[in-house]
Design brief:
Number of domains: 3
CATH architecture of the largest domain: 2-Layer Sandwich
Radius of gyration: 33 Å
CATH superfamily of the largest domain: GAF domain
Order of helices and strands: HHEEEHEEHHEEHEHEEEHHHHH
Number of strands: 11
Structural class: alpha+beta
Helix content: 25-40%
Distance between the termini: 62 Å
Shape: elongated
CATH class of the largest domain: Alpha Beta
């Protein structure tokens, strides 16, 4: 076997970790090396049964004008369950044309039948097994033990490449889901390194990176209380960072209130994280987790949920929605343009329907409901 062909096959397997088509090239190379019609990676579900094709490739015919053979992936694995990892099984098929057509219902099958299959158990994990199977067509010499031994070099590379690809896909999927979940949160989340670098921030938190640690022009007056354009902080955020970064300080959390130019309020809570649990250990010092909660109007889904859960009328729902935003009953009646007595009557009905007896209980219920239904903050 040519060393160059082996190296190209191995290279393709590892390139397949990020480029699936590279596996097809490697499997095609194995077909050429073994004079096989097709090479297939199969996953067998050992709990529920059944086979799933992970990747397959066919050998191109010597005559490029001829149609490629339609051999199809194996419908079953023709050997006992006790095959050892790294072990090979060679099976000869003596099917007639009618039987082959029933197994592989493709056009042109009448002139093509599989005469030999060679399969290796690449890896065994709880619930599944991975196989590499190669097939030779009718007219070709059947596989031999020497053919199997000649491919022992490729099995560890197949095992490692598939394992690395599965882990890469799982990590990418986990990261994608985690990012989506973070961006769906209705409050901002930021992780700062000790240096002030933002290591992580969701969509609602990104604007607060520059608000909490604004960039200062050289020679400009200190403006750490500005909170960026349109916001003012109750205390400098760098002070909170320094306190939390001090290992001798007993304080593990700090809070800041921010007031926007339009009167909006935001509560900012910062707390220490255990070094090394976020993004590995690529930085020195104490990481800090920051959560920013801004006051927003009631989510659009709240009226429908209040109606469905508690049977509130449209008027009662409008009053409840204002109460969720933190507005008191007197201000809510003014904004709704109703008499205070009407507001009290509606509030009493809301108490009855929601099984609450005080405005504090109702506020807690509605705030919890609003948090569940909150939409990501838009900027």
């Amino acid at each position: 076997m040519l060393t160059q062909d082996m190296h190209e096959t191995i290279r393709g397997l590892y390139q397949g970790i990020v480029e699936p088509t590279a596996w097809q090239r490697s499997l095609s190379a194995l077909c050429d090396l073994t004079h096989s019609a097709q090479a297939t990676l199969l996953v067998r579900d050992t709990e529920r049964g059944g086979l799933q094709v992970k990747q397959t490739a066919a050998r191109l015919p010597d005559d490029l004008t001829a149609p490629p053979p339609h051999v199809g992936p194996p419908q079953s694995l023709p050997f006992p369950d006790q095959l050892q990892v790294g072990g090979w099984h060679i099976h000869r098929h003596d099917f007639g044309i009618a039987a082959m057509r029933s197994l592989y219902p493709h056009d042109g099958i009448s002139e093509m039948a599989i005469t030999s299959t060679m399969t290796c158990l690449v890896s065994r994990q709880p619930g599944q097994e991975l196989y590499l199977t190669l097939q030779r067509p009718a007219g070709a010499e059947g596989f031999s033990e020497a053919d199997a031994r000649a491919l022992d070099w490729v099995i560890p590379h197949v095992r490692d490449a598939v394992t690395m690809r599965d882990r890469t896909q799982a990590t990418a999927t986990h990261g994608h889901v985690s990012a989506n979940l973070l961006n769906q949160l209705p409050f901002g989340v930021i992780v700062f390194a000790n240096s002030g670098q933002a290591l992580l921030a969701n969509a609602a938190g990104e604007p607060w990176v520059r608000r909490l640690l604004p960039m200062h022009k050289e020679g400009a007056p200190d403006s750490v209380l500005s909170g960026g354009p349109g916001w003012r902080l109750s205390r400098p955020f760098p002070d909170v960072m320094r306190t939390l970064a001090d290992p001798s300080a007993l304080q593990a959390a700090g809070a800041i209130q921010a007031v926007g130019a339009d009167g909006r309020l935001a509560q900012i809570v910062a707390m220490r994280l255990t070094p090394g649990i976020v993004l590995g250990s690529a930085w020195q010092g104490q990481p800090v987790l920051v959560a920013i909660h801004e006051a927003h109007a009631a989510p659009r889904a709240v009226p429908a949920v209040l109606r469905d859960l508690y049977g509130l009328t449209p008027a009662e729902t409008r009053l409840a929605a204002l109460l969720i935003s933190g507005m008191g009953l007197p201000d809510a009646t003014i904004q709704l343009g109703i008499k205070r007595e009407t507001g009290r009557s509606q509030l009493k009905a809301i108490f009855t329907k929601t099984s609450t007896s005080t405005q504090a209980q109702l506020a807690h219920l509605l705030t919890r409901l609003g948090s569940l239904l909150a939409e990501p903050a838009g900027y």
